């Protein structure tokens, strides 16, 4: 819970004497350090505006809030509470640490207190949904603290995969504030709704925290899970009010309506005070090393972040370093611990790693150590990004742009939550987007956060949820509007596939297996792979099935709790990777190849003689090898072949073509055509996260001098998820702006022939060969001359952005294209057949 006035900082904490500018000055004081700061943004402090709680809030709840040191609410908190009590679904979209938790907790607790006095029945209930277990556990602590003066009237309980089975029955029968996540709602609560009937019958509020995280395929799944929840609540006579919260959302009411399917009121005028934030953009220096094709290589963001975390810890500054990968988080903590041990052995124990895949007891212990101040520094993945109240943090280091401006501000907001000044440092990776941003700060600081992109009508998403809904309660014609316009056609296909059967006026689930198991709502494609220590049989953790080919293949280096392991074997059939402890002097990076074919073109727009297209494609991907890279420097030591099966993905893509005349105008002859297309593809993938709520790993691309389906030189960029995630569609809508930024990023890079900062990709299946930097610039220049002006976000596509029309296609085109960069490894073919 955000604390409006109180600070948990110890008065003896040495950090309390250091302003964020002073901390940054010390970080930049080493040799050549100052030149690494490309821009510093100062966000001034802001005064707060108070209000009074609505008079319908119970006096006991107001008193409990005051006992926590909060005399008066901020104006936006009072307004959100008023809407909630009026029965309006509402989204609170104010800044980080603005007290959004209190805005929804106060009306919820007041209603629960009213319900506890009901003469009959269970009384009112509330459901809280968090995208991560860590956030759910943190919120339970806050609710218990706030509701302690209310006695037994409020009974909060966590119900997730970590909840012991012996506690689950108590939660179902007695808890009136249940904290869970969309995964458990999908797999555990909704399929067993009869056991939850008394809870659902009394459900007054559904709280959806950090709602901006529900985007892409995951967000589309959650949207359908929420529609299933609303349907079952109606069955039991309930119509809960939805309360949503997000510190970083554009058009929050629109996004919330798309997520819940209900009209939502927006509260976005932030009345909370804010301490000074100093935000520095930091570019690691060039090294004397040479990368692929002799390209210059910068020092890695991992090594630079480890140095900064070490320096912050030595200063006594409580800090979190956010890292994009699990392996990166482990590596940064190991490097920092080693360097701190050289200064003071006791300091080494005050830095740790935090990531998904840890066992529950490990995560809880780390969270508690961070809360208590026992840990000074933490290298964490986004598992710690969302909303966890860690009062007293003073600095955040972000190792590489996290993919969206929304995530950037979310991570930066972890510091300064007690109202003090804070420091945030974005350390650029050797990557086109990161390099572009540290030299174009206006793209970060002068632009709003991205619109949330999700598509609940994606048939790969909708079909399995229709099956799950039918298994929960037979589907009727009255349900068609609830699940969207594609429902009626899909029901017929599901019936033809013998997954559903129509009897009289309803569709019934026909199988013995659980319908909820048809899909993984996070789009991870299958059960997680268990990582087992071969010598002892000890379970170290898990990795998502979709990432197993690239992260725990034979020979991969795996880090866990500061220890390094080598993967000896990967058994895909049993979903087990056997590892043994080792100490290699390198890290590993998987390489893959990709082919693509056009299934259907939904829309085609002339760009001069060229064409910009959007439609359905089939992508075939295979991990073929891995590179060994020296730690710290990133120098390539060698490549090892792998023998893993290919996987096929049907998804959505945007692609553009050029003609022979355009090639002549751009002075791109056949000898350099492949390299020019390839370079443009790499850079465009790197820059797309500026225009869609995705990151580089959500999308993939292929470029081919003569594609068999278009019969022209073609560049594809596609969603790395079955059925699409809305990212390629967003790319289509913003193509002129997106490709203009791509051209500028390549042209402005100081390298001679291309480097990781502009056109090289760390995942290129062809080893970044061929690439032609100048050819890419000339080609994009000619293409953009014919681009039409963008109106209302881009060229016309059926439906609104993020809500593209879905016409299921069963056409199968011959595979074409060449192996290039790919985003997430495609999932296996879906088990629900009637989707494209």
UniProtKB/TrEMBL annotation:
Against SMART domains, the record matches this protein to:
DEXDc (SM00487), HELICc (SM00490)
Q: Name one Pfam family in it.
A: DEAD
Residue numbers spanned by region Disordered: 1-35, 786-836
In this chain, composition skew of type Basic and acidic residues spans: 1-11
GO molecular function, one example?
helicase activity
Instruction: Tell me where in this chain the Helicase C-terminal domain is found.
Output: 308-460
| Cited CDD domains | DEXHc_Hrq1-like, SF2_C_Hrq
Could you tell me which InterPro entries the record lists for this protein? DEAD/DEAH_box_helicase_dom (IPR011545), Helicase_ATP-bd (IPR014001), Helicase_C-like (IPR001650), Helicase_put_actinobac (IPR022307), HRQ1_WHD (IPR055227), MZB (IPR018973), P-loop_NTPase (IPR027417)
Coiled coil region boundaries: none
* Keyword entries, A-Z: ATP-binding, Helicase, Hydrolase, Nucleotide-binding
Q: Which PANTHER family match?
A: ATP-DEPENDENT HELICASE HRQ1
Listed NCBIfam families: DECH_helic (TIGR03817)
Write down what this protein is called. Answer: DEAD/DEAH box helicase
Organism of this sequence: Streptomyces cylindrosporus
């Amino acid at each position: 819970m955000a604390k409006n006035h109180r600070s948990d900082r110890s008065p003896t904490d040495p950090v309390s004497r250091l302003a964020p500018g002073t901390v940054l000055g010390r970080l930049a004081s080493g040799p050549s350090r100052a030149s690494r700061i490309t821009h510093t943004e100062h966000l001034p402090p802001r005064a707060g505006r108070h209000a009074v709680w609505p008079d319908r809030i119970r006096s006991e709840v107001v008193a409990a809030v005051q006992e926590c040191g909060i005399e008066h609410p901020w104006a936006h908190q009072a307004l959100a509470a008023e809407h909630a009590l009026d029965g309006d679904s509402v989204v609170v979209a104010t800044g980080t640490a603005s007290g959004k938790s209190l805005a929804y907790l106060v009306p919820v607790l007041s209603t629960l207190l009213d319900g506890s006095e009901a003469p009959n029945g269970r009384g009112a209930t509330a459901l809280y949904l968090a995208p991560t277990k860590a956030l759910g556990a943190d919120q339970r602590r806050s609710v218990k603290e706030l509701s302690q003066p209310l006695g037994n009237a409020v009974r909060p309980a966590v119900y997730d995969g970590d909840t012991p089975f012996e506690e689950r029955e108590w939660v179902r029968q007695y808890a009136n504030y249940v904290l869970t996540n969309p995964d458990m709602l999908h797999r555990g609560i909704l399929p067993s709704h009869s056991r939850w009937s008394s809870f659902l019958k009394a459900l007054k509020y559904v709280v959806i925290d950090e709602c901006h995280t529900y985007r892409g395929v995951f967000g589309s799944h959650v949207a359908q899970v929420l529609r299933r929840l609303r349907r079952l609540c109606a069955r039991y006579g309930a119509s809960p009010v939805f309360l949503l919260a997000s510190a970083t959302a554009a058009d929050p009411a629109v996004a919330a309506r798309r997520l819940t399917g209900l009209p939502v009121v927006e509260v976005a005028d932030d009345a909370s005070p804010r301490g000074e934030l100093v935000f520095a953009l930091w570019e690691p220096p060039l090294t004397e090393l040479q990368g692929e094709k002799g390209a210059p290589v910068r020092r890695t963001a991992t090594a630079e972040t480890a140095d900064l975390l070490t320096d912050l810890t030595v200063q006594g500054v409580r800090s979190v370093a956010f890292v994009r990968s699990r392996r990166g988080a482990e590596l940064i903590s190991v490097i920092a611990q080693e360097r701190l041990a050289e200064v003071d052995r006791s300091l080494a124990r005050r830095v740790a790693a935090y990531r998904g895949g840890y066992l529950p007891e490990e995560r809880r212990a780390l969270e508690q150590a961070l809360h208590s101040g026992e840990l000074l520094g933490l290298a964490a993945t986004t598992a710690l990004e969302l909303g966890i109240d860690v009062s007293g943090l003073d600095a955040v280091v972000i190792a590489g742009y996290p993919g969206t401006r929304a995530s950037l501000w979310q991570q930066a907001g972890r510091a300064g939550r007690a109202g003090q000044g804070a420091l945030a440092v974005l350390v650029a990776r050797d990557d086109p987007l990161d390099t572009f941003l540290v030299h174009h700060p206006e793209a970060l600081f002068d632009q709003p956060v991205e619109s949330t992109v999700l598509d609940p009508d994606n048939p790969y998403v909708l079909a399995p949820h229709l099956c799950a809904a039918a298994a929960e309660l037979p589907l009727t014609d009255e349900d068609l509007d609830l699940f969207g316009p594609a429902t009626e056609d899909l029901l017929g296909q599901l019936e033809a596939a013998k997954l559903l059967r129509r009897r009289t006026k309803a569709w019934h689930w026909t199988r013995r297996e659980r319908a909820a198991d048809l899909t993984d709502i996070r789009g991870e494609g299958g059960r997680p792979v268990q990582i087992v220590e071969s010598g002892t049989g000890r379970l170290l953790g898990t990795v998502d099935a979709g990432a197993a080919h690239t992260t725990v293949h034979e020979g991969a280096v795996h880090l866990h709790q500061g220890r390094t392991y080598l993967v000896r074997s990967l058994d895909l059939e049993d979903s087990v990777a056997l590892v043994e402890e080792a100490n290699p002097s390198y890290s590993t990076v998987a390489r893959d190849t990709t082919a693509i074919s056009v299934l259907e073109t939904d829309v085609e727009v002339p760009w001069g003689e060229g064409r910009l297209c959007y439609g359905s494609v089939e992508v075939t991907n295979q991990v073929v090898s891995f590179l060994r890279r020296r730690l710290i420097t990133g120098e390539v030591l060698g490549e090892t072949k792998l023998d893993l099966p290919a996987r096929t993905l049907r998804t959505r893509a945007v692609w553009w073509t050029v003609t022979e005349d355009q090639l002549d105008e751009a002075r791109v002859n056949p000898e350099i055509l492949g390299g020019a297309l390839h370079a443009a593809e790499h850079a465009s993938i790197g820059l797309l996260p500026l225009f869609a709520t995705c990151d580089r790993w959500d999308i993939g691309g292929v470029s081919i001098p003569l594609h068999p389906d278009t019969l022209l030189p073609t560049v594809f960029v596609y969603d790395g998820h079955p059925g699409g995630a809305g990212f390629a569609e967003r790319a289509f809508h913003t193509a002129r702006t997106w490709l203009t930024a791509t051209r500028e990023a390549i042209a402005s890079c100081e390298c001679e022939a291309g480097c990781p900062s502009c056109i090289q990709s760390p995942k290129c299946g062809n080893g970044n060969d061929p690439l032609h930097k100048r050819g890419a610039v000339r080609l994009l220049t000619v293409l953009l001359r014919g681009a039409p002006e963008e109106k209302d976000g881009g060229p016309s596509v059926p439906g609104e952005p993020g809500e593209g029309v879905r016409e299921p296609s069963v056409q199968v085109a011959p595979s074409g294209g060449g192996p290039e960069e790919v985003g997430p490894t495609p999932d296996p073919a879906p088990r629900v057949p009637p989707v494209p």
